Prior knowledge:
Layout: E1 9-12, E2 24-32, E3 35-43, H1 47-65, H2 73-79, E4 86-87, H3 90-105, H4 115-120, H5 137-144, E5 152-157, E6 160-165, H6 178-192, E7 198-202, E8 205-209, E9 218-223, E10 231-237, E11 241-246, E12 251-254, E13 257-260, E14 263-264, E15 269-270, E16 274-281, H7 284-306, E17 313-318, E18 323-325
Antiparallel strand pairs: 1-9, 2-3, 3-7, 4-6, 5-6, 7-8, 8-11, 9-10, 11-16, 12-13, 14-15, 16-17, 17-18
Helix pairs in contact: 1-6, 3-7, 6-7
Amino acid sequence: MRKWFFLILILILTSALPVAHAQELYHKSGPLLHTFVEVKAYGDNSTRAIIDETFREMARVNNLLNNYDPASEISAINTAAGGKAVHISPETYVALCDAKKYADFSNGAFDFTVGPLIALWGFNREQPELSGSDPDKKRIAQVCRMVDYRALQMEKKPSGPTARLKRTGMRIDTGAFGKGVSADRAILYLQEKGIQSALVAAGGTISAIGLKPDAKPWQIGIRHPRNLSSFLTIIALRDQSVSTSGDYEKFYYKAGKRRTHIIDPRTGMPVSTVQSVTVIAPCGSASDALSTALFVLGPDDGLKIIEKKEGFEALIVTASGEVVYSSGWPQKKITY
């Protein structure tokens, strides 16, 4: 999401108990990645500068992946769709390889080439809306033919990796995995600098390093999808990431019905069967992408695939307010 007040997850930081050689908490927050970014880390007086550099690293990754920035590598791929391959950085190559992996795992429910459908339904603008009537079935079918992650061709060459979209009009949209990639880079940078306790929030994705100095895990509140000032549940996070996709992030009403920005790439229609999905995973790129995949798949098929992956858990709130979750979800009593 592009505005900080649409943060999906709320960070709850409890005060640390006094410990020997207690480290100080350093904190920075601000707009970045079309959302609100926050970094918290415990350390010595060098930590403030490390956090500043972490922000710069996240911005650098965003400059590679932001499909709304004409100068980004993703925009270069989109502009050249149907034409020649584009040279990309190793980081963009890895991010796209990971995205393809999650698309394969979800049987295409997560499809990062959904850009043409995002535009069709009016979600490619700061204030989403659809002028005029809904697109008819013929138009939706036409645009769906421009959506197929398998049509992204990538090669590793001696001169560096390249990427190419096979058909003119195709468009990669990194909205469902870019923040996770940026959070992963932030976590890696903090670890490289010796930080052993930190939290990174990038929109709806939160990633944690270690425990707090009081030996307790980070406490993360999962927002209630219809009562945004309250928590649906609270989870403990340690060396993991969590992402939530919700129909309250970016939406508009049409004919009295809420229309969300998450589009089913198989039907071309905005998803209306789910309010929110939260995924816990080993890294941010995975939790980010798979929260979108499960939103599209719904509770039955979504939980089936998440149960196949060790170290992954999911919680889904259906359109009717039913709360369902995977077998290893940490809390078993959740009231909507």
